[in-house]
């Protein structure tokens, strides 16, 4: 059976496939740019029917519209629109009174540990760090945990957990800088790379973090 994330986008999936996965749900009230809740949830799909079960007991039962892809009716008979803007990070379901952002990664739900760069550790990475970062709608910088994979010649990849709880990789190659799942603009000022994503997130990556000492 294909994983649920693959089934949603792969043409190979058929009506007979069914799957469910533990996920993270961010709840945005209609018209609000800030999530009111972030909590664990379970996403299930069978023959196009979608069920999202939140850990607080709220359940969304969505019946697909056979005539229009990405359109559903919820348990109250209200229209629901699926938005694929999260790419392979997850899905957005826009209901009448709120939007439910379903993320496949649950890393942001993990309890705080003695490791300030969790979920990254030197068991899996050459180094870990906290990067200065700013969300797309944020006015001030905060800190984002990151794991660093170093290569020869000063190249490397930095895996970041974004303020929104999405995990992605920034690749610092000799002739270019790019990222997985999103467009980025990279500028080098002194000994620090400033990475700006297409959605407006900003990350500051010291050259020393990439190259090591």
TrEMBL record:
Residues spanning the signal sequence: 1-18
Protein origin, superkingdom: Bacteria
Keyword Signal: yes
Keywords: Signal
Keyword Signal: yes
Name of the protein in its database record: C-type lysozyme inhibitor domain-containing protein
């Amino acid at each position: 059976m294909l994983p649920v994330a693959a089934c949603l986008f792969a043409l190979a999936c058929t009506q007979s496939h069914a799957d469910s996965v533990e996920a993270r749900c961010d709840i945005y009230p209609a018209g609000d740019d800030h999530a009111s809740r972030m909590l664990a949830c379970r996403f299930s799909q069978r023959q196009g029917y979608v069920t999202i079960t939140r850990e607080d007991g709220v359940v969304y039962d969505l019946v697909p519209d056979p005539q229009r892809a990405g359109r559903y009716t919820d348990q109250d008979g209200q229209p629901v629109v699926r938005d694929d803007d999260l790419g392979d990070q997850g899905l957005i379901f826009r209901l009448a009174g709120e939007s439910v952002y379903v993320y496949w990664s649950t890393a942001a739900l993990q309890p705080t540990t003695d490791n300030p760069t969790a979920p990254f550790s030197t068991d899996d990475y050459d180094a870990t760090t906290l990067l200065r970062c700013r969300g797309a709608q944020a006015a001030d910088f905060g800190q984002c945990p990151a794991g660093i994979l170093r290569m020869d010649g000063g190249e490397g990849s930095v895996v970041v957990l974004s303020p929104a709880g999405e995990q992605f990789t920034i690749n610092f190659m000799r002739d270019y800088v790019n990222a997985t799942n999103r467009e980025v603009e990279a500028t080098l000022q002194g000994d620090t790379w400033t990475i700006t994503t297409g959605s407006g997130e900003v990350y500051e990556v010291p050259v020393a973090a990439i190259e090591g000492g």
